[in-house]
Automatic annotation (TrEMBL):
Topological category with respect to the lipid bilayer: Multi-pass membrane protein
Subcellular location: Membrane
Similarity-based family: Belongs to the dicarboxylate/amino acid:cation symporter (DAACS) (TC 2.A.23) family.
Annotated keywords: Amino-acid transport, Membrane, Transmembrane, Transmembrane helix, Transport
InterPro entries noted in UniProt: Na-dicarboxylate_symporter, Na:dicarbo_symporter_sf
GO MF term list: L-cystine transmembrane transporter activity; symporter activity
Native organism taxonomy: Bacteria, Bacillati, Bacillota, Bacilli, Lactobacillales
Name of protein: L-cystine uptake protein TcyP
GO cellular component assignments: plasma membrane
Membrane-crossing residue ranges in chain numbering: 6-24, 36-53, 73-94, 106-132, 187-205, 226-249, 261-285, 372-390, 396-416
Record-linked Gene3D superfamilies: Sodium:dicarboxylate symporter
Amino acid sequence: MTTYLWTIAVIIIFLAINAVLVRLRAKHVKFSKRVFLALGLGLVFGIVLQFIFGNGNEIITKSVDWINIVGSGYVAFLQMLIMPLIFISIVGAFTKLTSSKNLGKISFNVLGTLIGTTAIAALIGILVVFLFNLDGATFTKGAAETARISELAQRQELVKDLTIPQQIVSFIPKNIFADLAGTRETSTIAVVIFSALTGIAYLNMKKKETKEAEFFLNLIQSLDRLVMQLVKIVLRMTPYGIFALMIRMSATSDLKAIIDLGTFVVASYVALITMFIIHLIILILNHINPVNYLKKVFPVLSFAFTSRSSAGSLPLNIETQRKALGVDDATANFSASFGLSIGQNGCAGIYPAMLAAIVAPTVGINVHSISYILVIIAVVSISSFGVAGVGGGATFASLIVLGSLNLPVEIVGLVISVEPLIDMGRTALNVNGSMLAGITTSRRLHELDESILNNPEAVVEAR
């Protein structure tokens, strides 16, 4: 009975704090402030629960089960939007092309930037492992880690026998309806490919069948507006979803395990921050003011950090590029959409490279060998295709990389305790990488609108 009453009390407090967040929205408090407030309140609330009841207590388990309706529900809504967003954004990018000859230039520059920066990110991840002497490190295995390793072993079965050429073939959408439903690990990249082919077909149709092409254009524009309205509805849930997710993370995490993995967390953020600085250097080399850039992209990066969703950040990403950075429409759509599944610097670059460098010495491999470092970078770059835009992408990328290098995958499960902490920074870096690809490509192709870029009032804020 006591457990039942305490559970009700926790849920009532949870609902009361949500009511405060609703009230703040009614008072027009900025979206980013409400999201960060929700993040902080969630962390504190979860830690307090664990301090009062203890890790694994039945009260926490039952309370979080109810709170999870909001947190997991929010994530599910974000996942619901991924495929429609990808399809509409990429096809929409083709409809915005002023000339089909620009397609090759935009694609080459965007993909080149995404994959090139992922290769650099992989190198940074490896060097940071060396810096913190983590190569060959071992981590504690608890009950949660054991369960996670068992789950990963099952997922590894799906990809362990695939060579890299076979993995590339797996990206092709054999059944687009199945991929739109997200039934495969590579469904995201499959939808990207299908969307690009649909866009190319539209350009061909536009030359010969103008009436039908105009109908298709109107249909895509209508669907775009409809999907954007759906996105706005889901984004309004963000503070409440973040609040619930942070409670779950801090209330159910093994704090001792997090402390034990503290060096790995610090090393990860050193790598992420270093790569972020490299992004800023690339901006400088392209004659773009990094301070001005940071002011304009802060809303979308803060959303990505707190939501841990590159896909959920897609609409804000595109709008920020177009209305705050002055990137042309086609390039903004291409870079933001491709960045969901290709060349994610954090999830598909730094993270799998770090894990490979850590675990390689445990099986007798000289990870300090220049040739082996180059092998890791190459495998990471190729494997960076097909990473999903909502939670789990880094795990899939790591399984592919470790499997391709014949390294044990258990390490992916051993760091489960700190996964949410690191994933926030990884997601922000992923999104920044896609915006970097957009603005630098637009600059190289002389399509960047300087008047928007240099206008301090041209800022996009989620609501």
